[in-house]
Amino acid sequence: MKISLQVLILLFSTFSIAQTPCENGMAGQYPCNGLDLLSRISLSAMNASAGNDSWGWTDPQDGKEYAIMGLNNGAAFVDISDPINPIYLGKLPTHSDSSIWRDIKVYNNYAFIVSEASGHGMQVFDLTRLRSVSNAPEVFTEDAHYNGFGRCHNIVINEETGYAYAVGTSTFGGGPHFVNIQNPLSPVAAGGFSGDNYSHDAQVVIYDGPDADYAGREILFGSNEDRVSIVDVTDKNNPIGISNGFYGSVDYTHQGWLTDDKHYFIIGDELDESTFGFNTRTIIFDVSDLDNPVVHFEYESDDVQAIDHNGYVLGNEFYLSSYRAGLRIMDISDIENQNMVETKFFDTYPGSNSANFDGAWSVYPFFASGNIVISDIDRGLFIVRDSSLGVNDNSISTFAIAPNPAKDLVTISSKTEPFAQIEIFNVLGQKVINLNFANSLSENIDISKLQSGMYVVKINSTTTKRLLIN
Hints:
Layout: H1 5-14, E1 26-27, E2 30-33, E3 35-41, E4 51-58, E5 65-71, E6 74-79, E7 87-93, E8 102-107, E9 110-115, E10 122-126, E11 138-139, E12 144-146, E13 154-158, E14 163-167, E15 177-180, E16 188-192, E17 201-206, E18 218-223, E19 228-232, E20 240-245, E21 253-258, E22 264-269, H2 272-276, E23 281-286, E24 294-300, E25 311-314, E26 317-321, E27 327-331, E28 341-346, E29 360-364, E30 371-376, E31 380-386, E32 399-402, E33 409-414, E34 419-425, E35 431-440, E36 442-446, E37 453-459, E38 463-469
């Protein structure tokens, strides 16, 4: 990609803070624990006055990672393949008016964007266009538009089925509005569910959890203002409400995410801290019986009063954007025994952790590289990383991977340094292969059972390299 002198000047002016390790509890001006700051892009660099949601896309062609951030006046696209020197590629302007609420999800190399702005509908943007940006930052145009609703608070996508679920619209009483996006450029209305209150956010999965009664069904877990709503949406013409989950001291059931085993649903109440005076509180539901969800326990921070907002599970960690307290990461490996422990944090709003609506709106922790995106209402886009992971692939390592891309078999070799362990992780950070050797210099690895996409290979628990499977 050719970048002009003017673009380079813009890029260097974009970052108010560059790579800054977390040392003695601080990364520059930002309080931290266990997370290094790689870079930040300010709102002004993206010609916006407020930030909101964020998501990510990994290009299956070359494994490059891109952050997508919602702004008051559009959606920004950022190449973070070099997280220390990210490139702001440009913005897709809002379809109608500006709004502080915007939400993005990704399916099949397309971004789907909604907003509370009047008449906004759903924008569709072809992310593969980001491969050929030659004059950043560009002003993009949408590739398709869905007008089956106007205002919309949030969008949920089940990538396994190719259905989007718009929630918080004026249709279906604010309940999920179904859209078939299997052909992303031709979204088709597919019904909805109005049987259980306004839905603020949701997660939809093909169910493979402990309740055998619903195995293989498409199940929606909604955060519906004062309750958890569980709905079978397999038959779009006949969605069926399964159950509700309730908890004490409820004010506004905001958002939740399932643990990997589908045994627990971790939710946040957006207003309980300010209304009841809790420290940051998270409610953990036991949803092993979908007909009878019950509160398993409540986790409350020892010393932080901030409002919790969006939280996501990756393996044994829960990543929580916590407004003025920034990103908080909890170890949930012992959740069965009602234990959660905060292990890391990065505070994007230094100076106060009070219960107010500033700071970290959302977090995207699913990049295979380990890079974590935080979208901040006031300070823009942050890229952080676990201090123990280092920054980039070890390009000077003696280890080699060939062929790459690969299909059925890949050879990992070394000229000098023997390896004892090889681990392979998918884009969700899940370990899909774990092999141990007696100090080998060359091994053939069977990858035929892995789906196509980008993976990270970790050698001897230290060196990481990317592997593309086609």
